[in-house]
Amino acid sequence: MDFSMLSSVLSAVLFAVFVGIVAWVYAARNRGRFEEAAMLPFDDEDWVSSGRRQVSRRVGK
User: Fold this and answer.
1) Angle at Cα 52 formed by Cα 48 and Cα 56, nearest 5°?
2) pTM score, two decimals?
3) CA-CA distance, 60 to 50, in Å (whole number)?
4) Tens digit of pLDDT for each residue in 5-48?
5) What does the angle CA 39 – CA 42 – CA 43 come to, to the nearest 5 degrees?
């Protein structure tokens, strides 16, 4: 097996992995979990603004 054949096989494998990841991300059963994760940056109920810095008060979590 020469280098060009190995390169072609590796490219095909990596493309198949990419397609698999894209299919997994867009699968309907994962939608709720990804929507919840997408809202994490906006979940600021435990943050208190202190001047220019923000201090976390996560106690007991």
Assistant:
1) 30
2) 0.54
3) 21
4) 999 999 999 999 999 999 988 888 888 888 898 898 888 765 55
5) 90
